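TASK: fixed-backbone design
INPUT:
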């Protein structure tokens, strides 16, 4: 029976966390929003740096580097895809060996190094946004080396920072668990603010002044954020593994699959069960609980909790695959949305033109406006109706975003059809450098709707994959969410390359002709709308049978 003193200790200390000295973390002076704000600040700077590069990358590739539209779009999607796939490796290193805090420090240093080399490469390449002859092989290699060094830095930074931030809230405390759900909303709002700032300021500097300066500013921001992150180390909560989990978590869970396969032909007549606790794991994995009767007691036995953890990971696989229906359309806003804007009237004031990539700011504006509404209005109302602590389940939240993504692609296809018709009406089909008499503001609805979809799907995916993996693998959980976006970008890149090849490239009637007035991006958007719709119905079927993982108990 729990005594009064034990209850008092549980209220004063966090059972699963330690402070910077390795002692039990006090609730009063560690973690919660005070610590989370430091970590959110680091993520804002990282997103500022990432989007300071990525949001206008296609303009740099088709300008100073002299690539065609299709090749540039494929390269952007490939880099974005690899940059969001590598976090799986970074999360593995963090959860298995280094821990989140040290992984963040090391990856931030690599990130800064990549940004420094990127700035150097841009300084050595002539500053222009027009298509020129390609730079030397050395400068080209230096640029892409720098770009992928940034991707390597992000591999440890991205999954660990968010997991480390969520670790500042104890899910066994009802108030802190509620705060953690809000954390994911406000986390995304804050980083969206950083993205907006990058798009407005950095993109303008790149277009109007200097690419080198535009790449150098994110480098300075990353250095400042790293210093601030280290200054907050005394108030952070650091994860502590329980005694039975001292073994490497990957080894512990991998052992379940090994023993389940090894024992697949065993039955109750020649074996005994070590643990008889009821669970919802598949029969195949429950074989890991069996040991031969002639073995010593407990030899090669797995715990029921280990089997349940392995089951939780298996259940994530079909959900992960269906989220690709969102990830592929999501990859388009940094490439074709931007190239569309180049051909349109970008005048906002007499003599002042907005850079086409700056329209991405409306994604951030949509997120900044809607997150508070979602968190403070929608969730309380939904909570009264559904009795769910978070208003709606994370899977329903993800599904809603996939529907919005489908609508986004439909609107994008209709707007592109209107743009092509405008080019025909004014005889500008063969004048790719001419500005069409169609305002760039026509693109705003698809940006705003994509931001709204992000609030549902991306934030939902973050919370879902974080909460549905074993506690010590939560960096991996967030890496799984990122990897879905990465695979979506790579699939988009592959799809673009195959369609461009099938439709004849620039010499034929390619959907992605460098002369966008002869291209057919509208066909591509309709195709993505169909992919997204099919993916939604598949997601709906799978989510109905999904069983949520139980919260760890001590």
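OUTPUT:
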């Amino acid at each position: 029976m729990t005594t009064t003193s034990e209850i008092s200790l549980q209220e004063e200390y966090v059972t699963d966390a330690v402070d910077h000295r390795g002692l039990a973390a006090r609730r009063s002076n560690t973690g919660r929003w005070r610590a989370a704000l430091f970590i959110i600040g680091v993520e804002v700077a990282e997103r500022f740096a990432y989007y300071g590069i990525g949001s206008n990358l296609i303009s740099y590739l088709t300008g100073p580097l002299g690539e065609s539209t299709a090749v540039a779009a494929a390269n952007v999607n490939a880099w974005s895809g690899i940059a969001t796939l590598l976090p799986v490796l970074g999360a593995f290193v963090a959860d298995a060996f280094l821990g989140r805090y040290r992984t963040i420090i090391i990856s931030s240093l690599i990130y800064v190094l990549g940004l420094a080399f990127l700035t150097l490469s841009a300084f050595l390449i002539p500053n222009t946004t027009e298509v020129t002859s390609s730079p030397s092989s050395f400068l080209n290699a230096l640029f892409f080396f720098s770009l992928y060094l940034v991707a390597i830095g992000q591999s440890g930074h991205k999954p660990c920072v968010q997991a480390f931030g969520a670790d500042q809230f104890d899910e066994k405390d009802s108030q802190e668990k509620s705060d953690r759900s809000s954390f994911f909303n406000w986390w995304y709002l804050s980083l969206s603010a950083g993205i907006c700032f990058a798009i407005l300021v950095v993109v303008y500097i790149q277009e109007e002044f200097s690419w080198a300066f535009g790449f150098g500013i994110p480098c300075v921001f990353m250095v400042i954020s790293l210093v601030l992150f280290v200054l907050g180390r005394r108030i952070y909560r650091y994860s502590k593994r329980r005694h039975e989990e001292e073994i490497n978590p990957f080894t512990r869970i991998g052992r379940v699959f090994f023993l389940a396969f090894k024992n697949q032909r065993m039955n109750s007549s020649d074996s005994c069960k070590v643990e008889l606790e009821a669970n919802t794991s598949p029969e195949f994995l429950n074989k890991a609980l069996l040991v031969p009767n002639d073995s010593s007691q407990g030899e090669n036995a797995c715990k029921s909790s280990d089997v349940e953890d392995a089951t939780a990971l298996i259940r994530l696989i079909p959900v992960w695959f269906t989220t690709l229906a969102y990830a592929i359309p999501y990859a388009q806003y940094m490439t074709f949305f931007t190239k569309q804007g180049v051909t349109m009237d970008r005048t906002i004031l007499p003599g002042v033109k907005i850079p086409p990539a700056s329209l991405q700011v409306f994604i951030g504006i949509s997120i900044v406006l809607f997150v508070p509404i979602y968190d403070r209005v929608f969730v309380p109302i939904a909570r009264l109706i559904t009795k769910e602590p978070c208003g709606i389940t994370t899977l329903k939240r993800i599904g809603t975003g996939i529907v919005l993504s489908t609508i986004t692609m439909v609107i994008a296809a209709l707007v592109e059809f209107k743009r092509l018709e405008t080019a025909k009406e004014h005889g500008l089909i063969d004048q790719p450098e001419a500005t069409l008499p169609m305002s760039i503001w026509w693109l705003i609805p698809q940006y705003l709707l994509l931001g709204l979809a992000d609030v549902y799907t991306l934030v939902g995916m973050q919370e879902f994959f974080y909460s549905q993996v074993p506690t010590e693998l939560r960096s991996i959980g967030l890496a799984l969410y990122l990897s879905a976006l990465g695979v979506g970008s790579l699939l988009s890149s592959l799809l673009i390359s195959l369609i461009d090849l099938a439709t004849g490239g620039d010499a034929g009637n390619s959907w992605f002709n460098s002369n966008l007035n002869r291209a057919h991006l509208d066909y591509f958007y309709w195709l993505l709308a169909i992919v997204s719709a099919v993916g939604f119905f598949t997601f709906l079927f799978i989510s109905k049978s999904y069983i949520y993982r139980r919260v760890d108990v001590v």
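COMMENT: The radius of gyration is 25 Å.
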